[in-house]
Amino acid sequence: MKRSILSLMYLIQGMRNAGIDIDEKLMRIGLKVDAIDLASAIDINLEREILKVLCSNFSAEQGLKIGQHYTLEGYGPLLMLLISSPYIEIALHKAIQYCQLTHLTGTLNAHVENDQIAILYQSTRLTDELDYFLAQCEIAGTFKFLQSLYQIMDLPFPRIRVELPFELPSNLVEMEFYQQFYGMDVCFGAPEARFWFSQDVLKVKIPSFDEVAFRIYEQKCIDELSKLSMYENKPRIVQRVMDYLVLQNSIMPTMTETAQVLNMPERTLRHQLQQHQTSYKKIREEIIKNKALEMMEYKKYSIEMISELLGYSEPAAFNHAFKRWFGQSPRQYLK
User: Fold this and answer.
1) 107: part of which helix (H) or strand (E)?
2) Is residue 156 within 8 Å of residue 84, measured between CB atoms?
3) Does pTM surpass 0.90?
4) What phi-psi label fits residue 138: left (phi over 0), alpha (psi between -120 and 50 degrees) or beta?
């Protein structure tokens, strides 16, 4: 199963913003932060292995500090869908519907009780220190996301009561730290994280509502979800190579580097790929082709920028490759 790379990238960026140096840990598993493609998807098992390396020796409480540094950067179509919604109620519904495109590894739901409504965040599991650390990051990140979203929509932030699935802090200093971030009305010992607010908030109109933009960005969110299953049902070794390469931006790693990350001799990797009638070169080229199309379709980058981001020495080399793949030049494709 695959999910958006956002969760991992938000954690990495949050750690950096909190003054934690994690680049050395990433280098040990063959990853460079600035070379990770923000539009990529990641296999949840691979993500878990990376998290075990990144999050070793961190306490759950440190997760709260890191989550406060999460930003809206990287949300793309989902963010635009939310701020172009007509009402807060619609935006909330869409956030839950497209939760897989957010920074969350857990799930979002809504619960109505009397005149109150709660956004519920439930972790997929809370069985070890890593789970509690990630939950702290993501719950704090979700609260920060709500604050930032209201700010970008130019709306006053509503009064929210927060319930957390953690034990009551054992000392006053920790308790004050929670209250400074979540407000004085924060409670502990809930079965999942709950953000309670008045149902009246749901009917608030969003000033940036745009019906056409709303339809466009919802379709983009649907397309993003479909991409998460693009490489499903591949042989395991092929999937592992794809999972690693799809994370990369700019110059792709060599087969030698990839074999090192996968912890196997290059000769073994080559042989196993041949057994499945493919090669490292074919897989690498397929990944680059898909990335090229994604960038072209978003119309966010110039052809020169796409060429550079995909690791080509000059635009002419990218133009030649694109024409070989699709039978037309990049500019002809855009018309």
Assistant:
1) strand 107-113
2) no
3) no
4) alpha
